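Budget justification note: compute hours in this period were largely spent on complex prediction jobs such as the one shown. Inputs:
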Amino acid sequence: MNFPNLKAALINSQIWRSIFRSGIWKDTPRDRAGHVIGNLWLHLHPVRIRPRALQWTYTWGLGGISFLLFLILTVTGVFLMFYYRPTMELAYRDMKDLEFAITLGKLLRNSHRWAAQAMLVAVILHMIRVYLTGAYKKPREFNWCIGVLLLTLTLFLSFTGYLLPWDQLDIWAVTVGTNLAAATPFLGYEGPFSSLLGVHVANDVRFVLLGGTVVGENTLLRFYVLHCVFVPLVAGALIMLHFWRIRKDSFSAAPLALPGPRSSAEGAAAPLSSASDEEKVEVWPHLVLREYVAAGFTVLFILLWSILQNAPLEELANPTVTPNPSKAPWYFVGLQELLRYFDPWIAGVMIPNLIIVGLMAIPYVNPNPKGVGYYAWRESPFAIATFLFGILLWFVLIFIGYFCRGPNFAWYWPWESWLVHKAPPPPTWDLPLWAGALLLLFYFGFGILGPRFLQREISFKPAVIFYWIFAAAAGAAIYLFGFTAGQVAALFFFLFVYYLFGFLMPQRYLRDLSWPRYLTAMVFLLMMVGVVLKIGAMVGFNLHYILALPQYNFNI
Amino acid sequence: MDVTRRSFLWAGWAALVAFAVGNLAAAARFMFPNVIYEPSQKFNAGPAAEFPEGVSTQLTTAWRIWVVRKEGFLYALLARCTHLGCTPNWFSDQNRFRCPCHGSNFTPGGDVIAGPAPKPLWRCRVEVASTGDLMIDRAILENRPGLRERPPFVVSV
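Corresponding output:
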């Protein structure tokens, strides 16, 4: 028996050649190109790519890992659907069956749950990586927006998915989540100004999400269809668009050449050296191999995690009794913590939407063409510092919500027992209407105009040192008036955040932008800093509302 | 009127857009059910005279209602936080309701004393039937001071 001959005969047979377009593999450049072009699965790739884009530390493979996790979720999800019936009576029982009565059911459910959480982590890290390497800049602005939408859809898939087991976590998370929809301005029955449009409990956005007025049978069915069919279809379409644009806008944004060596004093401005321009290498095998290695490790990781750790399942849903404390899954617990400080229409509707729109606005606001294709800390210090500050803020909120909140949502340190008795929270107070209105006008008025019209460059270090001297003097004075040390410290910290991100940095880096860009950037920046300030006002001084118009449900 | 080829095509495009918009509107309307099969919000809470003085939590798990009796009057608070709809817990030692979801606190009268809740707890319509039973209607609600202290949101016993 001659194996090579047999193999050649097989490959040259009509059947083989009708399925696979290439003949016997000779490992020529033509073969390698043909392998990418002639393969439905691989033809999304270019044929050749710069070696720089292949480095692990450049992409970390995060986009590909996110997509792989989406595929794992699709496959495990389809299998789970064979045993799951979305009714109030049966859903929880089917979960128990999956856990205890169905061979490998538990593993499948674990994989689905953990892959979902891993996908969120991967998508968030992918966004951070893309941002840090400037891969959102021209001509990739639109693809960045698609990416932001995909992040939103990933969160929405999680949200719709976690109602399905019908346990206590689900029903209360969805009760809270859909009551947020009820707080939408104009469109939700508890939102600002909705009474002016005749919106009531049985015709608002919450009603259409729930399919009724309470979380019930219709809700479960709606979330099931959204989770299993509607959102995955939309996400799939956007993923295709995302990939297509990556391909069209040139893969991974790796530049033709990196900036020259930073030996000169003005390192950032050094010209691109053509000497560092690299010969491209073939995608097969160099890139595809790396992709398969990343995929292999990801699958292994999810499998091990699913074997070692079971997905949580709480008690059967009870629509009258809320667990104490009741916490959202980790990726929403930051939002839950935010809801502690703001009215639902702000924390639950405005802020998430503004984050989405703000993220999408970044590439159109930032005109700096430099720093594409490598980690460009020096080329865009303000853009990167502000972005990382936002991300850090979000994860600090997650940390507080997850580790520092106990029964009655009171503050417990992570090392404290939840059995310790905590005093009830102190009473809150509102600013008078005129004072709140003036404060907001001043905050946004001065905040927008101040950095723009102070045309002289403020030197950085003296400005910061001056702040601390001034603050120490003011703090000493306030302390004498009877503020506690904690309140003075809060005042220092939160005013410093404003001074740095709301004034000093924009004054330095934004004041020369064109007006539309400047206005957009400043409004989003001031709102982000404002969130921090309002948290400080509530934590340090128990301020409930800056501006309260309860008759219209309009409270800030 | 002259119908040119161009204006005819414009009319065609306009019709197509109108059709698409109509489809979207129809799809949106389709998602609003006309009939919902939810239980009645009105129920019989038992003999009105038997509720103890102060806040009673015996109806909380079944109906999400606290019955509060004070100096010859009864009112029924809906045990639904006005912030985002969780069920707060009654702490008799602290004389307040505390919500487990975001930490809002309410007095036995329903007023917010701490936390993020924007408005007082709702009081339900109450009446005493001829049998002496307390009838509570969770669909008719009031929380404005002045109105909530008047019938039908309080009843004397």
